Amino acid sequence: MPDTNSEIVDETNRGLLLEASLADSPRGQHATTLTAHLRDAIRNGMLRTGTRLPASRSLAADLGVSRGVVVRAYEQLAAEGYVNSRQGRGTEVAAAPRPPASAAAPSPRPPTNPGLPTGALFPRTEWLRATDRAIAGLPDSEFGYPDPAGLPRLREELAAYLGRARSLIADPGRVVVVNGFGQAVRLITEVLIGSGGREIGVEDPGSVGLTEQLTRAGVACRPIPVDEEGIRVDRLARSGLRAVIVTPAHQFPTGVVMSPERRHALLAWARVTGGLIIEDDYDAEFRYDRSPVGALQGLGPDDVIYGGSVSKTLSPALRLGWLVLPERLVTPVVEAKYDADLGTNTLAQATLTEFLAAGSLDRHIRRAGSRYRERRDTLVSAFRALLPDWRVTGTAAGLHVLVHPPPDADETEAARLAQKCGLDARPLSRYAVATIRPGLVIGYGHQRPDTLAGAVRDLAECYSSRC
Ligand SMILES: Cc1ncc(COP(=O)(O)O)c(C=O)c1O
Questions:
Q1: What is the DSSP letter of 281?
Q2: Could you tell me the distance, in angstroms and rounded to a whole number, from the CA of residue 19 to the centre of ligand 1?
């Protein structure tokens, strides 16, 4: 059997590396550095389960440090479960449940969807200023765990902003800050399941990501068709469902704006059946041709759970969103939020508070909105001029449109050509359960006008010659 000291050197070739690294590390940090190196070596498999580590005295001599440094490192690793130290057997690498690299689960792809905002328009300077103000002004007491409902000042700012920008009836006490609408859905689902709800209506066509998320959380999704006025409330009423998720301001993905009649019918459905409406107000701030259509919640604050986020107005990277809830749901949702993550990052919340209080979000929406309008106009005009039998709809708001190729077109082929020519295009059928006429969902927010115009020009040429 090799002597214990050569074991670590021979098996892992780590001896020299450790020595060199400890030489670089400040004196008081030797134990921490050694611990980190050994931990890494165990995690990445260089030190395998059962490997006996050198005796503390001999490793200390090899590394030119005091024995106490090695003893402290071994004790720390033992406390973390990476090694076992037994009388008479020395210190051995513990069995660690580590999947072989090839069996590792693929990490989920970051979600992509048509209609992402462009990072080029993110208001970096104003956001940085807001961060400075937030950190400078945050009282010491706020550096502990956050209120799971959200920073009280942010809830006030959000209530004011949503009242002003989206016509909500928003009491700060009903606002809960979340990590985007994605988390909001998860929390609502838990509360629904907790009260016996196992089914939910979703728009068809609608968001595939949402349906998948709900299904994974244990809720069955029942597709309800959408027409030119929004969700078919008559079909919802016949379904017997007691909860539905809708996108009234700019239906995803068709872009239909829910008609006033449908809004009233939907609210009447909720009142008559005791049903719950979840309003996903994901992209209404960018409304181009007239004032934004107010949120449904403003007409029925006790029947509607309202959800929104900064993912379209600023960036999905921030993971900041909010819910405005009927009073009876505030406590269960806040409890679910606490269970999920103890609360949203305080510094991010404080920055958004400052950003809102300074009027920066309103300004950014005005500025970015005019750039996005230019992109939308360019795209729509290019289709009209170059592919006049392709109809563009759903253009009123947001960062994507729906383009209908001629009825006899093969949707998959049209999407392939559009993508090839540089458009962020996806077949409408990808979002639909029922068969519908061919369509392409095209996101334009992250492409410059000249790029969009060039892509439609290429598509027109390509389509005529079927390249
Ligand atoms: C239909 C729909 N709802 C909601 C969102 C926002 O989700 P989140 O706030 O989790 O980023 C998106 C994002 O693009 C969306 O497409």
A1: -
A2: 50
